[in-house]
Structures are given as C-alpha cells and as structure tokens.
C-alpha cells in the first residue's frame, strides 16, 4: 500500500504517551497490549487504527491468529468500543477469546483528521459521506490488517455506520467478499424510510442551507450562534445530550457514560454524511449521494443516483443484530436489509434496547456478544 506508515507502541511496556491518544489509554490502562498504526487511503486520507494483539489472560501473541476488525458507528471512533472495559467491551472479550483484534477509524474523526494534501480546516477536506468511508477507508484498513497479519481474510464487526460503509465496500468492490470470514453487523443503517429518530427530519428541513464542511450544531439550527453556545463549557454537555438522544433515543443507563461519550462520540464528521442519510430516509433508496440532476448526470451518467448493488454483498456468513426500540434502525428496515443480503437475523427483544445499547448496555454480553463471539469461533479458519 502506498504511503503506509507504521508506529508500534506497546502500552504494556510503558512506551505510550497516553495524552496523545484516547484509544491507547483506554486499552493500556487495563494492562492489555496495544499498538497504534497509521496508513493512507488511495485518495490521501491518513487514518490511525489500533490493535490488541493478545490478551494478558491467555499469554503472548502466537503466529497466525485469526484477525477481527471492528468499525465504529456514526459520529464515533475506535474509542467507542473500549469504554466498557474488559468486563463487557467487545475488543477485550475478543482478545480474551484468542483473536487478534483491530479497531478501525474513518476519515474526519479524531484519528482521521490528516491528509496528504488537504487541510481539515478547509471545506474540501470534508467533501465526503459514508460512501467514501466504504469505498476507500474500509478497503485500505482491511488490506493493511491482512498485510500485517499475513492472513488471507478476517472477521468483520460493524456498528451503525460501520455497517453502512461495509455494504458500500462490497457493493463497490465485490472482490472483498473473499477477504471476509464472518460478517457481524450491529444495527446497520441502509434502508431508513421507517426511522423514528428526529435527526433526519431536522436535517431535511435545513438541508439546502448545509454547506460542505465539518458538522456543527449550527448546521441544523440555521443559526451559527448555536456553535458558540454549544462550545461554552456550561452548555456543551446539554448539546451533546441532545445529539445522543436524537441519535439513540432515551436510555437511563446511557447517562452513566455521558461524560466518556462526550470525549469520543462526537469526534468529527461531515455535513454531507448527514445529508446522505437524509436522502436515503426521504427516498427509501439505498443509493449513492444525490448531487442534483445536473451533477449526477456528469458523475454517474444518470439524473438519479444509482442504487448500491447489494447483490454484490455475498460473504459466507452474515449475522445481523437489531432491536425493537432503536430510533435509527426500525425492525421493518432491518428485515428488509437482512432479506436482501441473506443475513442470519438476531432480533433483540429486550425492552428499551436502543442504538447505543449494542455497545454499552449492562447486559450486552448476555444479549448479543456471546452469540457473536461463538459465531466467529464456529467459523475459525484453519490457518497455516
């Protein structure tokens, strides 16, 4: 891969400056080994990803362990998977189960704010949606992991937008089906017409006023003074709570993680990303970004953006987890997607289980993680 940069930092050996990276701190403080790696996408974005090569509970890393790659959701980063710690954080549980664990990141978040030629302070840096995350970021990260581990394929876990990007990757690059051992999608967003969250309704009301650039509260309120309002220490928490409620819905136990989430979940994303989801919500079409008929004709050769070719999504095993109380992914939309990609459906019927509970619920291990890890174990490859 061109422009590949590697930095190995072993937290267990005391070589990490925790002030430089939250994910390093979140792993290292539990005495798990952690590595930081940097890579460049084919269109120039520089991403930082993290690795837990083994668990202190099962000895040092051995050669040819199966790799598991985790991709975060909308507004998030690799930090999101780590907030629950070893007791119920999926990366720790996977490491304890004997896997080589990798945590991905997407352009624009805290670990993806660099580029070979673009400045994140300029609008051009932010001219992307989740299409580019799927078409460029995921392939680059998967190829990187397979190159480092010398494995032909890996297991994939994606939450929310991580699932959206995964579907885009396989629709655009079907050859990556051969690089996936199992697919595990937690509340993946694709079909959105039955979404109950007010977030998309708000985006549609102000869509024409949202210019290219990084998301800010002013993007949705049409009043830039709200940016200053939400930046004030006194009101910052209120603004973040509003965003979390819009995305996930109300949940009593999520409040316990609010302080941590404020440092991680709103870590940077583009206005175009929100607008792309709003287009899918409005039209019911899982399609590429709509630039307007004139630009669509130039970019796509058609006045309407083309649908993603979900028939190209054909990994051997796809597990899909969804719930009744998710404000972003309805049961109707989840079942539509599951049928289109022949996924094994895991319908969570726990009361008030919302979009963030797939990461943070107190009973997340019992409800979904045990089944997820067992599925990966059942498809563990025979590696040379």
From TrEMBL:
Keywords: Hydrolase, Lipid degradation, Lipid metabolism, Signal
One term of GO molecular function: hydrolase activity, acting on ester bonds
The organism's taxonomic lineage, starting at the top: Eukaryota, Metazoa, Ecdysozoa, Arthropoda, Hexapoda
Pfam families tied to this protein: Abhydro_lipase
Signal peptide interval: 1-21
InterPro entries associated with the record: AB_hydrolase_fold (IPR029058), AB_hydrolase_lipase (IPR006693), Lipase_euk (IPR025483)
GO terms classed as biological process: lipid catabolic process
Presence of the UniProt keyword Hydrolase in the record: yes
Family listed: Belongs to the AB hydrolase superfamily. Lipase family.
Name the UniProt record assigns to this protein: Lipase
Domain of life of the native organism: Eukaryota
Active site: 160, 326, 355
């Amino acid at each position: 891969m061109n422009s590949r940069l590697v930095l190995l930092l072993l937290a267990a050996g005391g070589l990490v400056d925790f002030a430089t990276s939250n994910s390093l701190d979140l792993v290292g403080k539990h005495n798990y080994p952690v590595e930081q790696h940097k890579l460049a996408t084919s269109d120039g974005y520089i991403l930082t990803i993290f690795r837990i090569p083994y668990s202190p509970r099962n000895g040092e890393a051995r050669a040819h362990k199966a790799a598991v790659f985790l991709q975060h959701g909308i507004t998030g980063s690799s930090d999101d998977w780590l907030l629950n710690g070893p007791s119920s954080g999926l990366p720790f549980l996977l490491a304890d189960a004997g896997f080589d664990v990798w945590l991905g990141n997407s352009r624009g978040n805290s670990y993806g704010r660099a580029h070979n030629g673009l400045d994140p302070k300029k609008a051009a840096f932010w001219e992307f949606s989740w299409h580019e995350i799927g078409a460029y970021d995921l392939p680059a990260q998967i190829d990187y992991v397979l190159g480092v581990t010398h494995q032909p394929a890996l297991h994939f876990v994606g939450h929310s937008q991580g699932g959206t990007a995964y579907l885009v990757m396989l629709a655009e690059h079907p050859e990556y089906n051969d690089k996936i051992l199992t697919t595990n999608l937690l509340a993946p967003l694709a079909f959105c017409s039955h979404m109950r969250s007010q977030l998309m309704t708000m985006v549609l009301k102000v869509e024409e006023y949202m210019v290219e650039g990084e998301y800010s509260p002013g993007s949705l309120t049409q009043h830039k003074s709200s940016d200053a309002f939400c930046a004030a220490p006194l009101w910052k928490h209120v603004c973040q709570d509003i965003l979390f409620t819009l995305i996930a819905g109300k949940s009593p136990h999520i409040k316990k993680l609010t302080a941590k989430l404020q440092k991680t979940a709103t870590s940077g994303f583009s206005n175009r990303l929100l607008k792309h989801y709003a287009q899918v919500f409005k039209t019911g079409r899982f399609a590429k970004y709509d630039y307007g008929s004139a630009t669509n004709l130039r970019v796509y050769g058609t006045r309407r953006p083309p649908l993603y070719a979900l028939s190209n999504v054909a990994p051997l095993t796809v597990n899909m987890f969804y719930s009744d109380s998710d404000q972003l992914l309805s049961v109707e939309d989840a079942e539509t997607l599951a049928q289109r990609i022949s996924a094994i459906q895991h319908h969570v019927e726990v009361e008030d289980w919302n979009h963030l509970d797939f990461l943070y619920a107190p009973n997340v291990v019992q409800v979904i993680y045990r089944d997820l890890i067992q599925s990966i174990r059942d498809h563990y490859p025979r590696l040379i």
